[in-house]
Amino acid sequence: MSTTRPLLTQREAATACGVSRTTIRRRREAGELPGAVLDDDRGWLIPVEDLLAAGFRLNAPAPPEEKGAGDPAPAGTPQGTAPEDSAAALRTELERLRHEHALALAEERGARQLAEAEARHLQARLEERGAHIEDLQRALAALTPAPDRAAIPRPAHPTPVPAASSPGPASGEAEDASGAGRRRRWWPRRAE
């Protein structure tokens, strides 16, 4: 297999392009480096043309030393990304958070306005109920007998009023139904 440019191992390609070995491996596994071949002695060999076609720049500054498997990546900067990409990603994340915050504020304002409207409605209903209760209390008071009327004893049975032409007891007096005695009428006699 003859190529115009040399084949590089994954480590050499990562150093030449200024990225990590993990980035090269991921790109190879994704099929972006189709000319890569597996050599029994050197491992994966990648043509320089494939690196250029995948968008890598050769002789870029070397990446920082690779971290061990247990070491975490630096916060905010994904491993294998350029600082410009990190800044753009952070700006995008900031805009997304601002948008979510604005939506949350709008939703909170709407909920507060709805709660205030409901409170005003309930207050109006409470005032209506209070007025209705006052009306009912006045009606009940009008139907309740006055204190002086309550003290008058009621007869066991009503006595008939004698006719004006018939001789009978004197004015204001009526005979008991049994005829046992005379009692005073409790209603006034009308003038004729």
Tell me what you see in this structure.
Among the domains are: 1-64, no CATH class; 81-143. The chain has 192 residues and is mostly helical. It starts with 6 loop residues before the first strand and ends in an 8-residue tail after the last strand. It is built from 5 helices and 5 strands. A hairpin with a 6-residue loop joins strand 4 (173-175) and strand 5 (182-184).
Secondary-structure map:
Layout: E1 7-9, H1 10-17, H2 21-29, E2 37-39, E3 43-47, H3 48-53, H4 83-143, H5 147-150, E4 173-175, E5 182-184
Antiparallel strand pairs: 1-3, 2-3, 4-5
Instruction: State the low-pLDDT regions, or none.
Output: none
Q: Round the mean pLDDT to the nearest integer and report it.
A: 75
- How much is the radius of gyration in Å? 53 Å
Oligomer class:
single chain
Portion in beta strands: 5-15%
Features:
192 residues, mainly alpha, 3-stranded antiparallel β-sheet, two-stranded antiparallel ribbon
Summarize it.
This protein has 192 residues and is mainly α. The chain has helices at 10-17, 21-29, 48-53, 83-143, 147-150, and strands spanning 7-9, 37-39, 43-47, 173-175, 182-184.
